[in-house]
Specification:
- By secondary structure, the protein is mainly α.
- It has a two-stranded antiparallel sheet.
- The chain is elongated and about 75 Å long.
- The N and C termini lie far apart (47 Å).
- The relative contact order is 0.13.
- This is aldehyde oxygenase (deformylating).
Length: 300
Amino acid sequence: MLPYATLGEAEAALGRSLTTAEALWFRYSAQIPDYLLYYHNILFLFIIFSLAPLPIALIELGLPAAVSPYKLQPKVRHPPGSFWRCYKDVMRVFIFVVGPLQLVSYPTIKFVGIRTGLPLPSLWEVAAQLAVYFLVEDYGNYWIHRLMHCKWGYEKIHHVHHEFTAPIAFAAPYAHWAEVLVLGIPSFAGPAIAPGHMITFWLWIAIRQLEAIETHSGFDFPFTPTRFIPFYGGAEYHDYHHYVGGQSQSNFASVFTYCDYIYGTDKGYRYHKAHLTKLKEQSSDQNGEINGFKYNQKSE
């Protein structure tokens, strides 16, 4: 809740006029307690989990021939029931794990210094903090994911996420409840290291989930803007990890590829692509489909 009763008081405290964005934020948040602002995350996550994967799912179910050239595992066709079952399981974990975790974590948000007041951060500040959050989360997620592929971690926890050997967008948050809790640690580590405004925190949660949905979409569309992000893995990169399955020791990174390159856990993927390239050159199959996995000529 902002400590100003009017716009005039806020401008007097800042010593300047409010920007349009700050005026909108004042009108919306001035009388809302900070903990209720933080709990907006629950609503945002519900909307993202429910709506963001829906267009891809409807296209895949309704127009399979139209999107087949972009499907990474074109021989796999998930029935409609799989999408519904996946969504129900995701919502079950959301209601009983993610939601309660959000409700009890507000004191930690206040402790690390995430603020709700004025002034709002500049676009440069938001971009810099989001970059830190992505890098910190990506590094922590890499090691947690790699540990999850040890015998105990996979058999007891991580095998749930790998039930979809050909991922679908709804399966991005599909995982054992314990994995959801553990992966929340690197997701929160960035905001704890470089705390910013609540709006930045909202953006971080939303963008990270949208990125995960794209990565698990099962499609490598040529028009996705993420192709222009340096070292970004994307759907093709992560799809290979699911394609190999539980024995996979490759492509552990959640967003970027640098950890896999540094620690040598992308060798299987690079060998796979080189092998497919060689077979494609020798094959008359112009679709580039070999053993059920579609090879794409996306540059490394």
